[in-house]
Amino acid sequence: MSNMTELQKKDLKYIFHPCAQMKDFESNPPLVIKKAEGLYLIDEHGKKYMDCISSWWVNLFGHCNPRINKVITEQINTLEHVIFANFAHEPAIELCEELEKVLPKGLNKFLFSDNGSSCIEMALKLSFQYHLQTGNPQKTKFISLQNAYHGETIGALGVGDVDIFTETYRPLIKEGRKVKVPYINENLTADEFKKYEDECFTDLENLVNENHHEIACMIVEPLVQGAAGMMMYSPNYLKRVRELTKKFNIHLIDDEIAMGFGRTGKMFACEHAGIEPDIMCIAKGLSSGYYPIAMVCITTEIFNAFYADYKEGKSFLHSHTYSGNPLGCRIALEILKIFREEQVLNTVNKKGAYLKKQAQKLFKDKPYIKEYRHIGLIGALELKDIAPGERIGRQIYEIALKKGVLIRPIGNIIYFMPPYVITEEEIDTLLKVCLDSIEEFISIKKINLKDTLKSDNKKRENLDSPF
Ligand SMILES: *Cc1c(COP(=O)(O)O)cnc(C)c1O
Question: Assuming Cys at both sites, which of 45, 265, 276, 370 could form a disulfide with 376, CB separation 3.0 to 4.6 Å?
């Protein structure tokens, strides 16, 4: 307690932080960030940190971006909020018009919400109600992927599969069916991988063949399961999922909340599979952390199932006070404009390729690395179990933070997904700090790698430390 600042003491007095054990903060209090600029967060002592996780996966173009700051200031002085039932405004209308141009074909009607989880709730309710109103009231079940994460509200937890978030609340949850995922594994040959992918797909196919009459939708994180530890699976699987779901009148909900807006090198990750989902959820990058805004994008076909005389009772009754807030819409519009004007996807792919090349070079022969996973501007280092019973990722994260680099742990994994403004030089620093932090951990713990790695056959499970 003694070397905490006044603000830190007050923080611990009042605030119950998300996704954390408050007791941990007694020895390691939350950092109080005073301001931020570009890639950097600056704490109350003036110390700078490279924000290599885009502040919880949201930031695309750097903190306090001058272009965004300018439009938000203008918007604040024009219209800050208006009830969105029966009222509209230019930023919301223009945002939909611009989104339609960049979304996969067919997504052209939009609903607004203010966070990712609530737009997952909307997507699930929309799918159920669509079937109810088109003669299939028995379609009430959801399918999702093993290890999925779709948010932490009660409905979203039902389609999620990360135990640390779900376990406690099971009695409250409507559990969906979970299916196996063909994770990319570089140790498999092309033939072996194909066999594995077929197995996973057959698992789904059997479930659908037997139960399609009661399945409303299938929801996926496209290609990358973030909260599972940046687990990546094959685009071909997603393509087959799309074909199968279409055949059986099952909606495909594409949760692009984390992976949308260029993160994987395409505007939306589902484009790697060349598919068109029925419903897409977007948030995070949509407003880059400036304002809580999320959207559900649907097809005209789904929209039409709700379009009727008032008396028929087919309306979609789901509203949030902050639906369609003008500040959020104006920010999102500017972000789409930056994409158009600054060739952002090229930048992501170029910097991503550099990050991948450098990371592979640096970690290639390190005996403690189990796997390096990469797509777009996301990298994840999975470590072998070099210190059984220890929170390995967590401790490496803490060492890296002291060195001025913010990465994040999930169990034995540390990952980075920096804002797109990061430079090659900063990528070098990020990787060097990761390497140094891991080696410092090994040295502090006096780990004898030879002995420890002999018995490394533990499966990746018991993720102790989310995000
Ligand atoms: C963050 C996230 C959510 C939940 O969004 P919130 O705004 O945190 O409620 C849902 N799905 C995915 C894939 C996410 O990464």
Answer: 265
